[in-house]
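Please think about what follows:
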Amino acid sequence: MDKKVYITASSIVCALGEDKKSSISKLHSISNLNYKEYLKNNFEEINYYRIKEKFNSKREKFFKVLEKTIKDAILDANLKDEEKKELHVFFASTSMNISLLEEDFLEQNILSAISFDEISEFVEKILNTKYPSVFIQTACTSSANAIIKATNFIKNGEIKRAMVIGFEFFNQSTYEGFSSLMLVSQSGEYKPFDKNSDGLILGEACSCVILESKKRSNNDFEILGFATTFDDFSITSSNPDAKATFNSMNEALNSASLNLNNITCLKAHATGSENSNLSEVNAIDKLFKYHNKKCDVVVLKPYIGHTLGSCGTNEIILLCESIKNGTLPKTINFKEPYSNIDFTPLLEDKKINSATILFHFVGFGGSNSSLILSNEDNKCI
């Protein structure tokens, strides 16, 4: 019989804060009334959700934030030395080491940044793990897919426990790439799922989850099911018919032997770009009509930006920890829904401390990933 898989510990450094506790506290303090002030404090030369701590170089930032995130997760799980050695590490990112490549090129006019081997050796030394690291790069679904991959290994008894690290650090190449596709918001306000949204705002973050087959706390979230689908419509946009997105979410429900009646909320990807927004709202609308049932829809990117390959771990941590702290967070800066779409995201905080959540993520290249997590005893099967 397949083993169960739980998220037993987590950590995050993002625009909201330097650790999980401060990030959740800040998230709960943001409202439509102070959202513009929050953005003003975040943005400097460009509109970008940034890690606020200052560093002497991009290299120092990369390794110090990575180290802190890993150590915070170990502390959160209270892992013993022998347990750390049993960790299988999965790295997930879109940009990977591009920020370091840029820094070396600007300073030395050479492309000689650290290799993936150096990154993995750095982490393996901290953990003293016995196993080589794995790198997963599937655009904005990277860390969600890394969690799915690690979960499969644990369920099948191939590994005992895993650490999934999602990370994105600011680099000019990625920023200019999204700008060239005219996907970056010109207004400087994040308005996903809003009819008047004018694009996305990128963000940087580093986060970590530890996966194990046994709970460490009564309110640990279990990974009940998941699914992945691929949309061959375009490399950089989603098919407006929304079939691949709908199938991903619906197949995740089937894999968990659940239907929409069992779901507390749906965490949408909601990048803010016109094509992605429209395709996803169509998919969610189809899902609700197919099951003849609605649930709350939560959007998190206005709080931290679009953190690309790390958004899976980032948004899973923020939502799960927010619920553990008693709140299903509202979607901020939403004003006008799409025509003929019969739902809007959650607009007021809701008091709650347990939930069954359908998470959805979309990536360039047509990747769709959906996961169902629950800390409700009657749902954890």
